[in-house]
């Protein structure tokens, strides 16, 4: 890694032998009546802190399965969901929708999807409502930080490959408004758009240890596969703010 390096204490990732429940397939509605499909991974012990995962453009919640299981085995409840117009989240009271026909305002309204997901979690007796973190990738990162600006009860946010602007959703104004709350940003140099964005955001941070810029690794959730050392870094970061 070069530029800013995030240094963490050692995290012990629990063995796969720990007993965890299978994901529960769920449906919840947004404030503007979009039906959102999700998967809930309950923590082995409850009540537990929770993490919500927000996927990339033209992907769906299945892209998070491996990291969701890892988070679950490490004591977190996890909620993945399909953003509106993606996966199984294509139904509204007005009829079916698809991201292929979305305007910038439709993409901006994805924050309602994340808001509904967080609210669904917070009313569960097996989740600690004051301990909810959000991890977003690519456009999901931009959605996550813009949502967290408005929801000040979010414990921590992790952005994988944010972009200066995705489909009209800007990142820098949101980061400025969100800081100095807990934020960890990651990108790779071979993902030039995100790397440039991260470098432009660096001056906003008083603590340089919350930005990680890898030499390579790809974009968004692909970073989690190509850079396995990133997973314990993320675990350590979110755990430190949800004790």
Protein architecture, described:
It contains eight helices and twelve strands. It has 243 residues and is of the alpha/beta class. The longest helix has 13 residues, at 110-122. A hairpin with a 2-residue loop joins strand 5 and strand 6 (95-96). The protein has helices at 65-73, 104-108, 110-122, 139-150, 172-178, 192-201, 222-226, 230-240, and strands spanning 24-29, 34-41, 48-54, 77-81, 91-92, 95-96, 127-137, 156-160, 165-166, 169-170, 183-188, 211-214. Strands 1, 2, 3, 4, 5, 6, 7, 8, 11 and 12 form a ten-stranded mixed β-sheet that branches. A two-stranded antiparallel sheet has the order 9-10. It has a single domain, classed as Alpha/Beta hydrolase fold, catalytic domain (Rossmann fold, 3-Layer(aba) Sandwich).
List the helices and strands and how they pair.
Elements: E1 24-29, E2 34-41, E3 48-54, H1 65-73, E4 77-81, E5 91-92, E6 95-96, H2 104-108, H3 110-122, E7 127-137, H4 139-150, E8 156-160, E9 165-166, E10 169-170, H5 172-178, E11 183-188, H6 192-201, E12 211-214, H7 222-226, H8 230-240
Parallel strand pairs: 3-4, 3-7, 7-8, 8-11, 11-12
Antiparallel strand pairs: 1-2, 2-4, 2-5, 5-6, 9-10
Helix pairs in contact: 3-4, 4-5
Enumerate the spans where pLDDT stays under 50 for 5 or more consecutive residues: 1-17
Instruction: Please name the CATH architecture.
Output: 3-Layer(aba) Sandwich
- What general form does the structure show? globular
| CATH topology call | Rossmann fold
**Range of strand content:** 15-25%
In this structure, how is the largest beta sheet organized? 10 strands, mixed
DSSP summary, beta strand count: 12
**In angstroms, what is the radius of gyration?**
17 Å
Distance between the termini: 28 Å
Compute the number of structural domains: 1
Structural class: alpha/beta
Series of secondary-structure elements, N-terminal to C-terminal? EEEHEEEHHEHEEEHEHEHH
């Amino acid at each position: 890694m070069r530029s800013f390096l995030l240094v963490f204490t050692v995290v012990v990732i629990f063995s796969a032998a720990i007993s965890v429940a299978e994901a529960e397939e769920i449906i919840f509605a947004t404030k503007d009546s979009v039906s959102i499909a999700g998967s809930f991974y309950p923590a082995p012990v409850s009540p537990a802190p929770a993490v919500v995962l927000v996927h990339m453009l033209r992907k769906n919640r299945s892209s998070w399965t491996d990291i969701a299981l890892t988070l679950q085995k490490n004591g977190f409840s996890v909620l993945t969901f399909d953003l509106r117009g993606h996966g199984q989240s294509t139904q509204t009271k007005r009829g079916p929708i698809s991201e292929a026909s979305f305007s910038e305002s439709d993409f901006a309204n994805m924050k309602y999807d994340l808001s509904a997901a967080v609210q669904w979690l917070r009313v569960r007796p097996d989740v600690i409502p004051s301990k909810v973190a959000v991890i977003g990738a690519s456009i999901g990162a931009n959605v996550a930080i813009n949502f967290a600006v408005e929801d000040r009860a979010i414990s921590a946010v992790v952005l994988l490959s944010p972009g200066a602007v995705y489909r009209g959703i800007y990142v820098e104004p949101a980061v400025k408004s969100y800081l100095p709350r807990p934020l960890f940003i990651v990108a790779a140099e071979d993902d030039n758009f995100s790397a440039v964005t991260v470098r432009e955001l660096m001056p906003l941070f008083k603590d340089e240890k919350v930005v990680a810029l890898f030499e390579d690794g790809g974009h968004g959730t692909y970073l989690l596969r190509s850079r396995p050392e990133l997973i314990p870094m993320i675990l350590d970061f979110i755990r430190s703010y949800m004790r």
